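Anyone up for a design puzzle?
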């Protein structure tokens, strides 16, 4: 009986919509940014500037050219020899849609000093995804890159929108 009622209601609604002006249902979510194309163009502009800077590095020999990488995010902080004294400034280096994200800014640090934890499903105690407060996770020194398994459910907490409250 319930199925017939639903079918009748759907048929009735669809016939009403076709009688007059067609009802256009917008099922897309509104953009969180008023002009997303401008954000994409700004990221492309910064990347192009960095790439052209990287190409020019081979022709220059000044001291600043040794710290420029060609990556706009790394170039933001790498030329400052005392970057580790103000790690909160690293949050200001983001570009694109995450440029104004505040998640973790002003929070405590979890400095990575050990690259031996390879278990993504059962991380060591007090691993950053298990913490309940926002934090930044800068690297204390360059760690070896390892192939990691895909993200598990424990890492989804880190990937949430920083403006949305955690559950």
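Challenge accepted. My sequence:
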């Amino acid at each position: 009986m319930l199925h017939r009622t639903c079918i009748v209601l759907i048929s009735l609604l669809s016939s009403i919509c076709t009688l007059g002006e067609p009802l256009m249902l917008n099922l897309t979510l509104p953009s969180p940014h008023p002009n997303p194309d401008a954000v994409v163009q700004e990221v492309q502009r910064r990347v192009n500037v960095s790439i052209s800077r990287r190409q020019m590095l081979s022709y220059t020999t000044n001291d600043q050219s040794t710290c420029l990488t060609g990556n706009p995010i790394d170039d933001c902080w790498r030329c400052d020899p005392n970057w580790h004294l103000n790690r909160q400034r690293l949050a200001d280096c983001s570009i694109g849609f995450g440029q104004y994200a505040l998640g973790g800014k002003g929070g405590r640090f979890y400095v990575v000093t050990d690259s031996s934890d390879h278990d993504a499903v059962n991380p060591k105690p007090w691993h950053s995804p298990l913490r309940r407060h926002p934090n930044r996770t800068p690297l204390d020194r360059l760690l070896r890159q390892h192939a990691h398994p895909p993200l598990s459910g424990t890492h989804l907490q880190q990937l949430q929108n920083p403006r949305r409250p955690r559950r």
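A detail worth pointing out: Residues 34-100 form one domain.
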